[in-house]
Amino acid sequence: MRMRPLVADTSIAVALTTVAVLLGQESAKQGWPELDVRGYVLVALVNVPIVARSRAPLTVLTVVYLAWIAYVTVGYWPVVNTFGPMLAVYTVASLKPPRVSLPCAALMSAVWIYAGAISEGATMASVTGQAIGFPLVIWRFGHVARRSAELARQLKREQDERARREVAEERGRIARELHDVVAHHMSVISVQAGLAKFVFTSDPATAHAALSTISGTSGEALEELRRMLRVLRAREEGDGAPDAPMPGLARLGEMVERVRAGGVAVELRVEGTPRQLAPGVELCAYRVVQEALTNVLRHARGAGALVELRYQPHHVTVSVTNDGEGVIPDRVGTGSGHGLIGMRERAKLYGGTISIGPRSEGGFAVRLTLPTSAQAASQGDDAT
Q1: Taking residues 170-197, what's their average pLDDT?
Q2: Is the pLDDT of residue 133 over 70?
Q3: Within its chain, how far is the Cα of 213 from the centroid?
Q4: C-alpha distances in angstroms, 352 versus 58, 76, 337, 374?
Q5: Looking at the whole model, is its pTM more than 0.85?
Q6: What is the distance between the alpha carbons of residues 22 and 65, in angstroms, rounded to a whole number?
Q7: Ramachandran angles phi, psi of 268, nearest 5°
């Protein structure tokens, strides 16, 4: 269980104080003076400051060691108050560089030797060995903890940077595809405008139809352009636009056949009345299905997959599910791969919702819902 630092440090300080008090009650049996009021006050001064060790490690160490030296000088049993000073050295070693923490470990050795020197019957050879060994081991544990924390932070920064880079690359790719969609719209507008001009006086009905097409197409083009500008990032070196038309929902059957030829049993179901949607919406749905089926090929080649396409009055829904058979565990990702990032970015771009994850009955599911009009998109939930 993860605890807040202050709560954890408070718990540790209470535990150390309790242990010191219990040990102090054994002092007389060990041949040392019993703890009196002054002794208990010094016990508290050695252990209670541990509460602030994470926020002010050097200050806490200074207070703890001054109280520890006073406790030892008075003549109480030194063992009673050793745990607080040990933890103070560990804390400094885990938070500060060696040039700061090593002198603190040396201070612990010095106080340990001082306690042995003023104690009657102490064997200095044993005391010296303890004064060298204990601080060295404690410092080493703290130093390793500090290095591990630094490596963890560095790994987190690298992962965040890689995720940002993948998102930027995916958005750039989406923007290039949207550029092709807008270019297609502009080509239609250009052709229809030329037709309307040519038949404006001789065939008013055809001219009117051409102008209606221009009106609808220009609205879609403006919407796609707005989306493209929203995701556009620093431009990479431009690749030539593909000559083939952008894929859409009408080509899902071809995709399913290709995947089926790759060894995956895929079924396509279509519900509702198919209709022409904005090219960008169709491209978004097509790419999500493509990525989901690609993941099935990579990670669960033996699984059976189902692609469902549902036309609704104001939305279109596509889902890809597999039964989980033949999954290759070593190839299953953690849910944050490049392809999944692309799915979420596309859904967010078009004001849709997407759910990606395992099913309770087994297998994996991807479900995307997209609004089919700008009005539906503005009323939709952008959460992905």
Answers
A1: 66
A2: yes
A3: 46
A4: 53, 72, 20, 11
A5: no
A6: 21
A7: -115, 125
Neighbours of 262 (CB within 10 A): 13
Confidence band for 186, pLDDT divided at 50, 70 and 90: low
Q: Is the dihedral of CA 316, 181, 185, 307 positive or negative?
A: negative
Amino acid in position 199: V
pLDDT of residue 227: 59
- Determine the Cα–Cα distance for residues 35 and 244; give it in Å rounded to an integer: 89
Sheet containing 364-371, strands listed edge to edge, beginning at the edge strand earlier in sequence: 265-271, 304-311, 315-322, 364-371, 353-358
Q: What are phi and psi of 315, to 5 degrees?
A: -140, 160
Query: How many whole angstroms separate alpha carbon 183 and alpha carbon 188?
Result: 9
Among candidates 99, 62, 56, which has minimal Cα distance to 84? 62
Q: Hey, how many other C-beta atoms are within 10 angstroms of the C-beta on 108? A: 23
Q: Dump pLDDT digits (tens) for 331-375.
A: 444 444 556 777 887 788 788 999 988 888 878 899 999 998 654
Structure tokens at 29: 């049996």
Give the burial class of 376: count Cβ atoms within 10 A of its Cβ; 0-12 exposed, 13-18 middle, 19 or more buried.
middle
| 88 burial via Cβ count (<10 Å: 0-12, 13-18, 19+) | buried
pLDDT tens column, 10-30: 899 999 999 999 988 888 888
Beta strand 265-271 with 304-311 is parallel
Contact yes or no for 146/93 (Cβ under 8 A): yes
CA distances from 81 to 13, 66, 72, 179, 259 (A): 12, 12, 9, 72, 71
